[in-house]
Amino acid sequence: MKLGQIKQYREKLAHSSAVELADELLKLRREQFALRLQRASGQTPKPNQFAVARRNIARVKTVQRQARKAGGEKA
Predict the structure, then answer these.
(1) How much is the pLDDT for 73?
(2) Which of 2, 21, 29, 69 is most buried (most C-beta within 10 Å)?
(3) Residue 63 burial (CB count, 10 A)
């Protein structure tokens, strides 16, 4: 992802509800699993796709944590 895309993605996440964030996290985890399956079956996805998926998962989890902290919930 390029810097502009990352900023747009972060803005999208920041304005999402808790349910939307959970759905996005599930989608990203499935994408990561599909990449692992492709690699195991001999197909060769682009190597940077693993890092992009991992970083996007971290972004979603960060926004979820910030929302919980702002809402006063305990982790």
Answers:
(1) 60
(2) 21
(3) 20
How far apart are alpha carbons 22 and 67 in whole angstroms?
A: 12
Q: Cα–Cα distance between 2 and 17 in angstroms, integer?
A: 25
| Residue ranges of domains in the chain | 3-71
For the domain spanning 3-71, the CATH number is 1.10.287.310
Tell me the HSE value of 61 on the side-chain side, using a 13 A CA sphere.
Answer: 10
What's phi and psi for 48, nearest 5 deg?
-75, -15
* Residues in CB range of 35: below 8 A, 6 or more apart: 45, 49, 50, 53
Per-residue pLDDT 10s for the chain (75 aa) are: 788 888 888 888 888 889 999 999 999 999 999 999 999 998 877 889 999 999 999 999 999 999 989 886 654
Structure confidence at residue 55 (pLDDT): 94
